Amino acid sequence: MARLQFGLFVAPIHNIGQSPNYALHKDVELTVLVEQLGYDEVWYGEHHSAGTEYITSPEIMIAYAAAKTSRIRLGTGAVSLPYHNPLWVADRLLLLDHLTRGRMMCALGPGSLASDAKMIGLNMGDLRDAFEEDFDVLMHLLTNDEPLSVKTDRYELVNATSMLKPYSDPCFEIAVPGVASQVAPRLAGKVGGGLLSLGSTSPEGMQALRDHWSILESRAAEFGQVADRRKWRLTSHVHLAETREQAFADIEHGFMTWFDYYADNTSHPAFTLEGRTFEERLEFLQNARAVIIGTPDDAIAEIEAFVEGTGGFGCFLQFHHEWTTWEAAKRHHELFAKYVMPHFQDQLTRARNSYDAAKAGKQAYLAEMTTAMTDYMAKHSK
Question: What is the pTM for the complete model shown?
Answer without folding.
Answer: 0.95
